[in-house]
Design goal:
Helix content: 55-70%
Strand content: under 5%
Distance between the termini: 71 Å
Radius of gyration: 24 Å
Number of strands: 0
Shape: globular
Number of helices: 9
Amino acid sequence: RRSKGGALKSAVRGSATFKAPLPQSDAQETACKSIMTDPLPSHFELLGGEDAIQRLVDRFYDIMDTAPEAAGIRSLHAKSLDSSREKLRLFLTGWMGGPPVYVERFGHPMLRRRHLPFPIGVAERDAWVWCMDQALDDLDLPTELHDYLRLRFRAVADHMRNRPEGSE
């Protein structure tokens, strides 16, 4: 439709195309500019960066190495956990939004493929998750981040399963 002045009217009433911007206070304008220019912190940053990743990985493998509940998955690893610690540290750094150091060193993680040589069923998944839960609990994390990471680690651990339920 054309208005009396000849300009096209919006086919949808209230279309944002023809609306004037809402007035904003200085604080609102600053907040909007900040959101537009300052990226949200990554999980890597929220966790505390490289030092926190190292603490998480060390605690995880210390638990796996000593807890009777983890004996099954511990037996799937080499006698020395040094290589596993390093690879998990590198992987988690990139997975949580830090530098992609694992990919730079080893290529795409292909987690499931890299874990196929190891028999991973429900018991192994649950033991791995138990170790990671204990390690997360030992870090001083905001509740939202803690809960989010627990959910994501559970999903990844479940994806690693390569034995059907009941085959243990």
